[in-house]
Design goal:
Elements lengths: L5 H14 L12 H9 L3 E10 L5 E11 L6 E2 L5 H6 L3 H20 L8 E5 L2 H5 L2 H12 L7 E6 H5 L4 H10 L3 E7 L6 H6 L4 E4 L1 H4 L6 H17 L2 E5 L4 H7 L6 E3 L7 E2 H11 L3
Parallel strand pairs: 2-4, 4-5, 5-6, 6-7, 7-8, 8-9
Antiparallel strand pairs: 1-2, 1-9, 1-10, 2-3
This protein binds ligand C2E and calcium ion (2 copies).
Keywords: Phosphoprotein
Organism: Shewanella eurypsychrophilus
Protein name: EAL domain-containing response regulator
C-alpha cells in the first residue's frame, strides 16, 4: 500500500473538523439586547445565494440567508452570532417573520424578469418551527400576499431535524400538503439511511459541502454523488450540491444532469441590490 501523503492527511483532518461542530471555534454571540434592538429597528436583512443548473449554468433558484445589522455598523452579522440566541429566547419566529417579509417582496421583484419567473426560493426553518402548527399557514400567507405560487417555495430542514422525532414525518407532510417543497439540508452529516430517505415525503436533497469540497479527486464523494443522483432521479426530487468553491470541482460537477450547484465560486450570498447587479452581469443572451 502507498504511504499517505501530508496533503491527504490534511484533507482528512479538515474534513473531520468540519464535521464536528464541537471542534470549530465559534465567534462570540451578540447580547440579547442587541438582538432585540435589531429586531425592533428593522435591521434583519435577507441575503440571497443563487443556485444554478449544473449543465446549463442558468440560475434556477435562490436560498435566503439571514443577516442582521447592529446599530450603524457596516459589517453585517451572520447567523452563527445570533441564531442560537434567537432560538433559545423565543425570538426565532419574529426573526423569520422579519426576514420573510422582506425576502418575499424582493424575490417577487426578481421573478418579474422572465429569466427567473420559475425560480425557486429556499428558506431555512429552525427545529422548533417545524413542529409549530402555525408555520404552514404563515408561509401560505406570505405566498398569498405576494401572489407567489407555494410550490416555488422550499423549506430547508437539516437531516437530523427531519428524523429527530416520529412526528417529523407528519410535519413534513403538512408542508408538502400545502404545496411547499421540503429539502433535507446538510445531507450526509447525519444518520439517515437511504431506506429512511425514501420514506420521507421530501422534494429535495442538499448534499453537504464536506462531500463537495475536493470531489474532483475524491472517489468516495464521487460515488456518493452518483448514487444520490440515481436515487433523486428515481424519487423525482431535486438534488443540490452546496459549497462549490473550487473550479476543478465545478468542472467535475458540470456534467451531472438534475443537479443544482450553490457555492462561493458561483456567487456569494448577496443583499438584494447587489444580487440584481450580479444577475444582470451574468444574464445569458
Ligand atoms: P446552511 O443552511 O447550510 O447555509 C449555507 C451556509 O454556507 C451559509 O452560511 C452560506 O453563506 C455558506 N456558504 C454558501 N456557499 C459556500 C461555500 O462555497 N463555501 C462555504 N464555506 N460556505 C458557503 P450562513 O449564511 O452563515 O448560514 C449559516 C447557517 O445558518 C445556515 O446553514 C443555516 O443553517 C442557518 N441559517 C441561515 N439563515 C437562517 C434563517 O433565516 N433561519 C434559520 N433557522 N437558519 C438560518
Ligand atoms: Ca440551508
Ligand atoms: Ca447546508
Amino acid at each position: 500500500t502507498k504511504p499517505v501523503t501530508t496533503k491527504q492527511l490534511k484533507l482528512c483532518i479538515e474534513r473531520l473538523f468540519m464535521m464536528d461542530p464541537q471542534l470549530v471555534k465559534k465567534p462570540a454571540p451578540i447580547s440579547l439586547d442587541e438582538l432585540r434592538e435589531a429586531l425592533n429597528n428593522d435591521r434583519v436583512i435577507p441575503y440571497f445565494q443563487p443556485q444554478m443548473d449544473a449543465v446549463t449554468g442558468n440560475v434556477v433558484g435562490f436560498e435566503v440567508l439571514c443577516r442582521i445589522q447592529l446599530g450603524n455598523q457596516l459589517q453585517l452579522l451572520s447567523p452563527e452570532r445570533f441564531l442560537e440566541l434567537a432560538e433559545s429566547n423565543q425570538l426565532i419566529d419574529e426573526l423569520t417573520d422579519n426576514l420573510l417579509e422582506k425576502a418575499m417582496s424582493q424575490w417577487k421583484i426578481i421573478c418579474q424578469d422572465d429569466a427567473y419567473l420559475d425560480s425557486s426560493l429556499s428558506i431555512n426553518l429552525s427545529p422548533s418551527q417545524l413542529t409549530e402548527m402555525s408555520w404552514p399557514n404563515r408561509l401560505r400567507k406570505y405566498c398569498d400576499d405576494n401572489q407567489i405560487d407555494a410550490a416555488k417555495l422550499t423549506i430547508e430542514i437539516t437531516e437530523n431535524q427531519a428524523l429527530s422525532e416520529q412526528s417529523q414525518y407528519s410535519n413534513i407532510s403538512r408542508l408538502r400538503l400545502n404545496d411547499f417543497g421540503v429539502a433535507i439540508d446538510d445531507f450526509g452529516t447525519g444518520y439517515t439511511n437511504l431506506t429512511q430517505l425514501c420514506c420521507l415525503p421530501i422534494s429535495e436533497l442538499k448534499l453537504d459541502m464536506s462531500f463537495v469540497r475536493g470531489i474532483h479527486h475524491d472517489p468516495l464523494a464521487q460515488t456518493i454523488l452518483q448514487s444520490l443522483q440515481d436515487i433523486s432521479r428515481k424519487l423525482g426530487i431535486k438534488l443540490v450540491a452546496e459549497g462549490v468553491e473550487d473550479l476543478r470541482d465545478l468542472n467535475y460537477l458540470e456534467k451531472f444532469e438534475n443537479l443544482r450547484l450553490q457555492g462561493y465560486l458561483i456567487c456569494r450570498p448577496k443583499p438584494f441590490s447587489e444580487l440584481i447587479r450580479w444577475l444582470k452581469a451574468h444574464k445569458k443572451v
